[in-house]
Amino acid sequence: LSKLHTCVSECERGFVEWELATVAEACKKFWLEEFCANYLEMVKPVLYGESIDAKAKAAARRTLYLCIDAGLRLLHPLMPFVTEELWQRLPGRNHDPNACESIMLSAYPTPKASKRWANAGVEKAMEHAVNLVGTIRSLRAQVNLTKQKVEVYIQRKEVASFGEGAPTLADLCPVIATLGSASEVKIVEAKDSNTIPQQCLTEVSSQYTVALPLHTVDLGKLSVTYEKKADKKLAEIKDLEGSMARPTYASKTPQNIKDKDQANLAQKNVEEKTLRTALNTFLSMMTLEERKALHESKIKTAEQAVKKYTDEVKKLTDSIPPKEDKTYKKVIHKVGPKLKKAESQLRNADAALKRLKEATVS
């Protein structure tokens, strides 16, 4: 509701200053970023939870109604027909004797009327919660946790106060758990940092350290995935560097393309470094025996790749007739590119197998 008041204020300013873009942006931000992305998700456990009392459910429904009603009225000047249709379908309107016949006849929300909902402390607290949720989602994405819920530890460097009447970080844990798809969110003080599991993926900010336990994650499988991603990114870097190193590149390529390629190369280097850092983090969390087993698995996979490409090269080579044969030119035209590609893949696989056999695991 406090964010709704902010939206109302922005809409009023936009109309006063004849800036419809301000009105549109305020409505878009409220509907998409505040209401749909956050509040609707936060309120689901309250509405559908069996252990939640009736008063809490009624309060949640009332807040939903107020937000949708006022949100549609705010948006009506920009989208008259859609908002009219939706507003007419709001539950409870037919039972309200004071209800207007049309959204066009209802009062447009004003900051004076919505000021009672303004609460800077609540907004500040929710801003912290949403930032923490973003961090948790980022950590989950890094380890490919899509549906599985695990506990999350938040270590705060100091006890934050969001103002009088505002919720504390502990009060916000259920909200953070819901939006961050966590089974539980645990607040840990600096002196109790030893209670956080050792195998955790962490992200540190100026105020918090967020830790995601990896006890349910297959680190070996994850490290293989990240290594493949990093190798693929490195290959893209080599291809782009090769393209930029062509003799005609400096003289014939337009400057805007050069700038674009340079920015693209820098971005790819950052991405490759990030992937390698994550890979090293996962490997460091594994035991020596696990790393050795993973290394042996990689060697076995590389040997299979060498055999596959060796067989493919042999098959393609055997399919080429002698040069004296009438069909030689036709066959070589068709098979030649495939053979060249297979030979290149075989060389790369041989080189990868050699590197793995020469590497030591520590």
From TrEMBL:
Q: Known Pfam families for this protein?
A: Anticodon_1
Supply the EC number(s).
6.1.1.9
One GO MF term attached to the UniProt entry: valine-tRNA ligase activity
Q: Which domain of life is it from?
A: Eukaryota
Q: CDD domains, alphabetically?
A: Anticodon_Ia_Val (cd07962)
Q: Name one GO biological process term.
A: valyl-tRNA aminoacylation
Q: Which residues form a coiled coil?
A: 285-359
Q: Cite a GO CC annotation.
A: cytosol
Q: Which UniProt keywords apply?
A: Aminoacyl-tRNA synthetase, ATP-binding, Coiled coil, Ligase, Nucleotide-binding, Protein biosynthesis
Q: Could you say which enzyme class this protein belongs to? A: ligase
The record ties this protein, via InterPro entries, to: Anticodon_Ia_Val, M/V/L/I-tRNA-synth_anticd-bd, tRNAsynth_Ia_anticodon-bd, Valyl-tRNA_ligase
Start and end residues of each Methionyl/Valyl/Leucyl/Isoleucyl-tRNA synthetase anticodon-binding domain? 1-149
Q: Which family does it belong to?
A: Belongs to the class-I aminoacyl-tRNA synthetase family.
Question: What is the official name of this protein in its record?
Answer: valine--tRNA ligase
Q: Which organism is it from?
A: Lotharella oceanica
